[in-house]
From TrEMBL:
Keywords assigned by UniProt, alphabetized: Lyase, Metal-binding, Zinc
Species of provenance: Ideonella paludis
EC number: 4.2.1.1
Top-level division of the source organism's lineage: Bacteria
Gene: can
Name of protein: Carbonic anhydrase
Amino acid sequence: MTTQLTELFESNRQWAARTEAQEPGFFSKLLEQQTPQYLWIGCADSRVPANELVGLLPGELFVHRNVANVVAHSDLNALSVIQFAVDGLKVQHIIVVGHSNCGGVKAALNDMRLGLVDNWLRHVKDVRHQHQALLEQIPPERRVDALCELNVLEQARNVCTTTVVLDAWARGQEIVVHGWVYGLHNGLLDDLKMTARAAEDVDAAYAQALRGIRQRYVAD
């Protein structure tokens, strides 16, 4: 095991040279402005690289990541990112993105003990408890992915009910909140239809998205 991580510095030099060769002046332009249209709130899982998934370059996507893509109203880190994105960068879209077979969601579903992170995953356990009746109707082998999607719905709704987003909507700022899920098995994003562009949209969008999950996972 190396201690200096020289391989990462070499990879960085190669990436910077390749990027500059493909688009001369790329890094000098990045210095001038940061004007992303999108805030991505995703899982910290290393298999879910936000920019690459949607083909965007640095500077085009503002990103916040944590275990299981949670948006807690007590989390000043997430709230500060949302506030800066909305008030400072004037993003137009906030996208909460979960992913299939999420380890944090799996731990919350199965009451696995992992250590300190168990306290953070209590937020996902709350989602599990809220939707326990639905989850019990779903085959056990599909419950992790179903809870991943249910967690996205709840976290997207949490975004919609932050004071930052509510205040922005109240003053007429255009912001659309989305809930998506990424498939580790196929590399594709799916829109869960949890899409709200105003406070009055939230309940209907949530209900529609919840119906979609029920239709996908519960046999007729």
